[in-house]
Amino acid sequence: QVQLVESGGGSVQSGGSLRLSCEVSGFTSSSLKTTYCWAWFRQAPGKEREGVAAISPDFGATYINDSRKGRFAVSRDNAKNTLYLQMNNLTVEDTAMYYCAAGFYRWGFRPLQLDDYTAWGQGTQVTVSS
Predict the structure, then answer these.
(1) Distance from C-alpha of 22 to C-alpha of 7, rounded to nearest angstrom
(2) Beta pairing partners, 76
(3) Contact of 15 with 90, CB cutoff 8 Å
(4) For 39-69, what is each residue's pLDDT tens digit?
């Protein structure tokens, strides 16, 4: 059974940093590394869920939403079956529920598009105060 479990959320002041983790289970080691694209999405109250960052399974190419380039970084540790999101210089606008997701990497895959992902975690809350 596929499971994605996020952790690392919390409350932080504006300008602070957080590192989110997503522990993955239910995938084989080979599919984790070669078949699935991994991503972080977020959803603020009253807003649609949006892509934050993604990392491809082949060469680990990363995709970061333009508005967060320079502040956010995505990475993975295949040995630990864990995905990370490092967030720096956080602002109040970064307050949201953050979700980890997995999508089957195929031709035409869109790394930051919601509909291309089929497995989701329950989310971890990030709250940034001014």
Answers:
(1) 6
(2) 83
(3) yes
(4) 999 999 999 999 999 998 877 788 888 777 7
